[in-house]
Amino acid sequence: MAFRVGEWKTVAGAGFGVALLGALAGSAFADDALKLTELSPNGADACFGRIYDAAHLKAHPKQKVARIFFLYGHDPVSRPNEEPPTNSDSSYNGFIATTVRGAKAPEWASGWCNHESEDGKSGSIRCGMDCDRTMASLKLDDKGRLILTDVSADLYLDAGSEDELGEAEYDRQALGSEDDNFRLDPMPAATCQAEFARIDPIDPALGTPLRERLKPDQAFCYGRDYDAAHLGSHPDQLTQSIRVFRGPVELASFASGGDAANWPDGADIAVTVTTRQKSAKVTQTYSCQGEADQWRCAASSKMSDFSCDIAQKEIFLKRGVDGTMMLANPNSALAIVDLCSKAADGKTKSDDKVYRLQPMSQSACAP
Asked: Its domain of life (predicted)?
């Protein structure tokens, strides 16, 4: 199971929560592919939106949507993250964002919008989604306003979710029965950009992604040593010292078989832990890949103190504020206990779940 950022709750020695960053969908849309000239005559991003006032919402009690924006053009949500760059074109060119009553941030979906005619140049416009679903049908009225119809109540839910969730929970999460036939006014593209930015605000304090900060041929060392005062106030924390690093061995491994163009996929890292009970260091190697805004690293038998099949043991790295590195260990995937033992099968039941690590000199990670 992928460890999602919103689950990073408790930081060993940090005492703060980590903000949720949802997974990002869609990729860059080719500049020459904007073909619906009625929406975008000059090929630029086209924005339409509407914010409903209290009077309208009172008159339409079954309408949940209080704000709605539609952008035809380039992906307004995705941004540089830890996944390797890609030149593939998803063909997504329609993006919808809605905020329901009482919500603090929008939900959003992406799809590809085209004429439904055989030649793709005339007729009604349908915006499709994966699994042959419809995001919306589009048309302009005589005043240039965008009319959205065929908006499904389960726009943001998985197929078959009504059976999975049950009627009551489905009704709570789905859009309302009056959330259709939206009439949106044309607006500056910057207005849509600002609205989509509300979905997942960028924290400037996080700086550049790890894949940009840490180069394929660059050694690094991050770690933390916990003093007696800290350990005394965290009796369930076993970790006394922790290091995360790439040294000569890990660099040589990537140089011989890694692909710098797909960095950080295939990057080996080593994690060394010293616990209260054991004064000796225990080292575990992990093989990483970029996933959204984090590195997902599976335990490896290479250069490890364990030889069992531990590929399902995973840790997650992401950038923290002020140049720090966050390490999450949700499933006993650090060598605090023997990863081959049955005791390591469950989730970590201590303060040893999430760490905020400081950059250190390479000598601090030396064997």
From this structure: Bacteria
The phi-psi region of residue 116 (left if phi > 0; otherwise alpha if psi is between -120 and 50; otherwise beta) is: alpha
211 lies in the same domain as 192: no
Q: How far apart are CA 277 and CA 361, in angstroms?
A: 26
pLDDT tens per residue across span 80-135: 789 887 654 557 899 999 999 999 999 999 999 999 876 666 778 999 988 888 99
CB atoms under 10 Å from CB of 71, counted, come to: 27
C-alpha distances (whole Å) from 94 to each of 71, 90, 151, 265, 269 are: 6, 11, 13, 30, 39
244: its two tokens: 């995360």
Task: Say if 58 falls within a structural domain.
Answer: yes
Grouping H, G, I as helix, E, B as strand and the rest as coil, residue 123 is coil
Residue spans of alpha helices (H) in 48-133: 54-59
Our count of domains for the chain comes to 2
User: 271 is in which domain, residue-wise?
Assistant: 5-19+207-365
Q: Is the pTM of this model over 0.85?
A: no
